[in-house]
Write a structure and sequence with these properties.
This protein has about 210 residues and is an alpha/beta fold. The chain folds into two domains: about 140 residues, Rossmann fold; about 60 residues. Helices cover about 45% and strands about 15% of the residues. Helix 7 links the parallel strand 4 and strand 5. Helix 1 crosses helix 4. The radius of gyration is 17 Å and the shape is globular. One of its GO terms (biological process) is DNA repair.
Length: about 210
């Protein structure tokens, strides 16, 4: 089975292991829109929240929104406890991680002030031997730097085989750039995403890796 094929596993968080209720996402983008003087449609909010179009900054620029204006407004409108309470765990993610007998790490674009409360609320912090939150200083996926940082934290030995599982093209890019395999879990469907994301494994649910 795939679960026995790797010496260590890395995961993305949002959209891969967990997701937020749509009502929370819609409310955040309503308030961000008020700050920026621009309304975000449901489709725009979904694209940015899930990274459906790939790199979010490139998408913002395409829509005429300066990333340096958007991100401070976005983070200012995210309340850690409210976000945590609106977040749910995917059942297939719990089934997969529970079967792993190997070091497990998290590499996420979700910022530390949000990641901690989410993991605590869902009682899954002990799933991970390391948690790496991307930053401007550390880098953003598909930059391999955050992945390599997680590998160092795990004490991965040279020659070890590893994999990163995520729901976006940036996750697979980060995996490949760091010399790992990439598992893409498609939570939305390529027709809704607007593109097909490649990967060493492409699944609709992590149950496909178990059964």
């Amino acid at each position: 089975m795939v679960v026995d094929s790797y010496d260590f596993w890395l995961f993305d968080l949002d959209g891969t292991l967990v997701d937020a209720e749509w009502s929370y996402t819609r409310d955040v983008f309503d308030r961000v829109g008020d700050r920026l003087g621009r309304r975000f449609s449901d489709r725009e909010a979904e694209i940015l929240w899930h990274g459906l179009g790939g790199a979010r900054n490139a998408q913002l620029v395409e829509w005429g929104i300066a990333p340096e204006d958007f991100w401070p407004a976005f983070h200012a409108e995210e309340d850690p406890q409210t976000r945590a309470e609106a977040t749910f765990l995917h059942d297939d993610a719990a089934d997969l991680v529970g079967r792993l007998d190997a070091p497990v790490g998290l590499v996420t674009h979700c910022q530390a002030f949000l990641t901690g409360p989410v993991l605590q609320h869902l009682d899954i912090r002990d799933w991970f031997d390391t948690v790496v939150c991307c930053t401007e200083e550390l880098g953003w996926k598909p930059d391999p730097a955050p992945v390599r940082h997680a590998m160092r934290d795990l004490g991965v030995e040279e020659g070890s085989t590893g994999v990163l599982a995520g729901d976006g093209a940036n996750d697979i890019g980060a995996a490949w750039n760091a010399g790992l395999d990439g598992i893409h879990v498609e939570r939305h469907g390529p027709e809704h995403r607007g593109q097909c994301v490649l990967g060493d494994y492409r699944v609709g649910t992590f149950h496909d890796l178990i059964n």
